[in-house]
């Protein structure tokens, strides 16, 4: 998909010989801008610009003072007017520079509130000051709507360059001018720039924060008139001569149609990539000279291998020569509130980042070997040690170590550096000795909190830096360095445990596959034999690639031995038995091994000669031969954008899995293959659509595999928002501990561009699905609830509409105005019927449409604590979707209103503020399930919605729930290997645990305890919590036991084995459970309490027993201590007729 920049260059090239040209009129520019935002163009604002503004302004809003704002080029509507209401109300002064007279008039009009519409900034103390001229570098300006003023008399908390900086040259001068207009209070103000397409080159300005949105897309109708308008807008001019202009328009249409991408879903539209960048500056933006006066700049070779990184123009690269200069870098960053990136081997895609200072560790390039006995008595138990400084490459370390007969299990590429070792390091010795990070026993680190030099773990005395100290949290820091080490300090050197250097034999096979069936056969065979039967001294890699018009599977087996003679004569192996005679057999040492990779010479003529560029993401898989995974891999090969793209499957297991998941920060241990998804393109196509397509292909495949994977490899991940979903699974069970360590060890987020860790201490995201009738006010309520959550708990919260995705597709397919469709009530009502029909047809064609849209919304909000999702069109959404986000708590709040109220809102253009046209009216009593909560939204104003949030939503983010969660023990490999057991009953064994749990069960009950006649529970776990709860609320306790343990007469049903018992024994059988007959009167209200909800089989038996005793589903509520959504217990209960029973759980966990 061509970018808007590529399109602009091509269009201007067509008009290069034509002259003279003229700037666009206000009307032409306005029409082009509206075309840009129509359809999918609004997504950039909804998913990127508005959330970024909200996050950046949070400290200002929390300060308690009023906010003054200046918008430069806001267009027809203030960007700030799209913020949540609680944030908009803090803005008391507003100024704008909008030179387009049509836009300025519409902007003025938008601030004129009526009975039907609210002002975008409702709490301004004075009318908005809107200047109908460009923002300039001069001090004096004159407004078309106000008297003369001195620009330098005005000071602002926030200044926004809203829609790029086109026409402002040099750009850095305009930003410097804006910086002069910021307030000077303690917090200071902020200048924020949003720029479409391309990277901003801002000489010498250091950003406070930057973010990107690479997935922005513009959809343009493939219509002559629309394309004429759009092309002129993109180029920024038209021709003065009418005849020349018409001729150029014909050529421009051809260019648009040649470069625009078409999709089957919307064949009559052209799609263009529109990446967006945000850069925020404070008054410290001009302080670079202070740093370079102390630390030398890099001249000449940047030592950066990653081609994507080279497209990120760092504001400067410094190369410290000693540790004191590294400390200067940290001290400077802390003083001015800016971030740093670090260059080790230069393979990371984020070692350079726009408008950020990079610290090149190239001067620290020494390898020191201490054989056993040379490093002092206190380290004698460790054997030989290898100290590698952070500027070394893997090849350097292996070469130096081999000189004394040693090695380290580093990665398989000679040019990678410390970033890989600190974040994993998968190589051909991993099965025998573990990952590179497992061999780390110590490190020297410069703290990014204090700038102190820290010695962590086992560092020989002769390699301590002058003034170095041991940190108080040394054990935690060493733990974090072993798997997530780029996040917690600038590492100066790493101490590895040395191993005897082996010799390797390498055997290779290439298997042509006539079709996918044959390829699947080989993947299954490779999986079943390699993953389970090869000895640890062997590792086998597979490559899935296309060559000479045929799919191939290439296999290489590496066998290591410290005795060369045992390898020199080839002997039959498991692989040779399966695959036949190998095509090649070689014996070599650890340095020669680097050249033995199949990608270097065996595929496509070799990828190692500098002819190609690549982009990679890696996921960990248990079974590559499983039908779902094999299908994804083979289907992806069919859709690869370049013939050079391939999959590299590296064998794991062995020593990698011997290390407990929580023993190091590298928490992804349960995998047999690391699947490296590799997009490749010719190097001369760097930065082109070919490169972008290969990158997006990698992300698409990673997205498809993610739910089937055991985790993602964090070494590749960075600030790209497409990495957010992968980062969630990058550290297994260690993610939350790492979050707390990040807050303690890097509280100012100096290392903001490493593998992303969650920024908030909340252990669990709360996702609230806001459903309900048309015009009930769902979006309005969601906005109110966001305000309450932000105000009461210092949380990050966001409301998004899942239906916006289908609205954008509908608008693109039918030519509807997406802005009006999203924001204008009357316009939405006009399209309601057609939109519903369109959605149903799309759902028919795409069976997983709901899941796709839901996950896109969740992954797009990975950085928030509470996500409110409106626009749901699904049935029983909690039961249907909770397994997809099993680590999050999912609630449904059903908003309802009387028919008269909804009719009134339907006729009011904006009075509802919330209906999104997501569904027709529904009868709540006709549903076969029960929403988590129901809100009656008939009252005027927002007080009822606020009260509801305070009474029913805030308890789900209360710290007492986290206290309770901390009492649940986690036990690995129980009741069998590979299971992470959550010891829920451990709550009762903790001081105050049972009382806390009982109190929470009582307060979280959504109904009235005075109407409850009995608390029922099934042995044994439920007894503990149910008995305490029954005593607390003074309600009789009804016992459900195994058959034969209660006196007759009884009522009984069959109960299958519980999930945990089925794990513990393969011989578990069904049992009968019973309760005393007539112990509960017919029609009584019953609360069923249990410790766990997993598969739902036990609860289903309990409900069948109650049903048999005359208790209807409408009279039952279920209270659970801990729920495990991945097992889909709610869905099982719904399918068996118990969907109308309200299920409430205190805790939610992923996994078993």
UniProtKB/TrEMBL annotation:
Start and end residues of each FAD-binding PCMH-type domain: 310-501
Span of the signal peptide: none
Recorded superkingdom: Eukaryota
Keywords associated with the record: FAD, Flavoprotein, Oxidoreductase, Transferase
GO molecular function, one term: oxidoreductase activity
Record keyword Aminoacyl-tRNA synthetase present: no
Example of a GO cellular component annotation carried by this entry: cytoplasm
Any GO BP annotation: cholesterol biosynthetic process
Assigned protein family: Belongs to the oxygen-dependent FAD-linked oxidoreductase family.
PANTHER family per UniProt: BINDING OXIDOREDUCTASE, PUTATIVE (AFU_ORTHOLOGUE AFUA_1G17690)-RELATED, PHOSPHOMEVALONATE KINASE
Identification of the protein by name: Phosphoribosyl transferase domain protein
